[in-house]
Amino acid sequence: MKLRKLSAATALLATGALVLSGCTPGGGNDDADGAETGNGETSGNTDAFSAEGQQFTTEPEDTGKADTSDLETMDDEISVSMGEIEFVGYNGQTPESYSVYNSTVVNRIFEGFGYWGTDNVWYANEDFGSYEVVSEDPFTVEYTIGEDVTWSDGTPVTVADYVLDWAYQNASLTNSDDEPLFNGISQTYGERVLEGPQGDPEGKTFTIEYTEPFADWEIMVNYALPAHVVAEQSDMELDELVTAVREADTETLEPVAEFWNEGWLTDPGTLPDEELIPVNGAYKLDNWQAGESLTISANEEYWGNAPGTERIVFRFVNDGQHVQALENGDLNVARPQATVDTRGQLERLEGQIVLHEGEAATWEHLDFNFIEGSAFADSLELREAFAMCVPRQQIVSNLVEPVNPEATVLNARESLTFEENYEDIVSESYDGSYDEVDIEGAAEILEAEDAVGTEVRIGYAGPNPRRTDTVAEIKASCDEAGFEIVDSGSEDFFGPGGAQETGDYEVALFAWAGSGQVVSGQNIYSTGRAQNYGEYSNETVDDLFNQLATTEDEAEQQEIIIGIEQELWGDLFGIPLYVHPQLSGSDISISNVRDTASQDQIVWNAEQWQRAE
Known about the structure:
alpha/beta, Dipeptide-binding Protein, domain 1, D-Maltodextrin-Binding Protein, domain 2
């Protein structure tokens, strides 16, 4: 089963969403190459990325995962690098850990009811379980977890796990300070489903009932964290935990939330005790060398098809060293930053590697900080002056076009340049005010606001050559207008305690990773949402996203998105820059490597990788 890719960019935060997701915080790709059929469903026949010389143990039939049921696990090791950003932890559902860099690992150890194919088509994971709409009014969905699906410690995956999954996304469960108990990345589930999953906590079948139809219902429920571990670490029985969630007994739930929020956190290089981190995917966390690598190894208790290779090693290698590491054999798969130099270096390895190339659903942007005390928080005039001096076309021409000659400046957030509704949305929501650099106009505003010399710290996750170059381009232009641009890139900008968390920046430079969600942007732009890092607030935007979430009519969705874009441009929430090109390389001897438009990038099917014999 598969769904047509809908629209919108989501956070891969980090991958994200953004997750942050990565580039991010998040990274990801998106290209709807599949042809639209008459019923609105994407055929999903074409990978979004081209790659000559790929090898397959089983030829893929569509953009989903190939049938690898005949694979036997080889006692081997395949090394991959997504960049040098450190792994954060097992619980990838907190704002601090929800990045592409972290999710590309975490999503290898957990499975759920579906996954994104290579072109951002959603595929149901029928080996894990099934789901179906059982009532239209009220809108109700029934889920069934496969009988054989278990955690690696032998505990069955049950309804209890999904009750906890709902709880962490329920902002109505609050502490004595009226703050949400759980430090989760999203509140949408708890808002749309008021009573949580219904069913025997020890059973395999549950239903969820929506307050009203929801556009993204099919991807609302996916994988869950182990409730039995959380219960044990909270000194309670599993049924007590479930009862406390269902009765909204926040006092009883306080130790549950405390462990969920912090109990899986460890210092870099140190994994939690094995009994605390069971998995239900093909791999488990094995060995973590801080600043160097994280190894995942085959889960002996895995209920699905055997993974192709015993060990996958994620190496934290600087992008600039990826190609040399591929050439030396230190890496078998790598996703360096897509630059003209990288392309040339990868092309020179023809015959040794497979070059995977395509256009990502990851889009670069500058976001203002609206937190009290920030220079831009209460001044639309200063935000306008900054937007007037940012050389967007120059950034695209110098940094992106050499990799993707078709690249253009991005003028929307909820639709990307290659999507068919993009031009219609932009034509009705953006008037071209910031197409051309206007140094004189920006300088006049700074003079009028008595703001000449305003320091603008531009933060990003670094080191990142393209972002460093982007800030340099902005500095050369905006300093001339009267700003004082400061490059505040750092390794921990998006990490726990980093500048993004503390608000020590004026502008954040990062990317949101695309997904097939219609309303993913709600978590980024709506008041108080988990990924609204700069604390932006606009009641009209809040209302429009609520409307968007409850309609499945595409024409209505587009009109609402136009309204959202108009508001975001009017307020200058931030400044979109461009859609990311993406390049990856894989050793020609590794079978089943396919790059993807989804947030998981080239590692999305790592459990199928295997060295050719």
